[in-house]
Amino acid sequence: MKGNARRLTCTKCNYIAGRDVLAVLNIEKRYLQMKGEAPFTPQSPMKSG
């Protein structure tokens, strides 16, 4: 894989992360949902205006 092929960007919030990081977040989310707990949701940085 070359360049940005390993990095993914959310089209809604412009969150950028490597595909391995996103895989871990997805696994954690599924695990927490199975336990009935609220999963972590990445937040985009606040823009100062």
What does this structure look like?
By secondary structure, this protein is an alpha+beta fold. It has a domain at 3-35. The chain contains 1 helix and 2 strands; from the N terminus they run E-E-H. The protein has a two-stranded antiparallel sheet. The longest helix has 17 residues, at 19-35. It is elongated, with a radius of gyration of 13 Å. The mean pLDDT is 76.
Short description:
With 49 residues, the chain is an alpha+beta fold. It has one helix spanning 19-35; strands spanning 7-9, 16-18. The protein contains one helix and two strands.
Rg, Cα atoms, Å: 13 Å
Multimeric state of these chains?
single chain
Biggest β-sheet strands, sense, barrel: 2 strands, antiparallel
Shape: elongated
Helix run count: 1
What is the succession of H and E elements?
EEH
Q: Give the overall average pLDDT.
A: 76
In what range is the share of β-strand residues? 5-15%
Strand order of the largest sheet: 1-2
pLDDT < 50 stretches: none
How many angstroms does the end-to-end distance come to?
37 Å
DSSP strand count:
2
Q: Helix fraction?
A: 25-40%
* Class by SSE composition: alpha+beta
Task: Note the main attributes of this structure.
49 residues; alpha+beta; two-stranded antiparallel ribbon; 1 helix; 2 strands; elongated
Q: What's the SSE blueprint?
A:
Blueprint: E1 7-9, E2 16-18, H1 19-35
Antiparallel strand pairs: 1-2
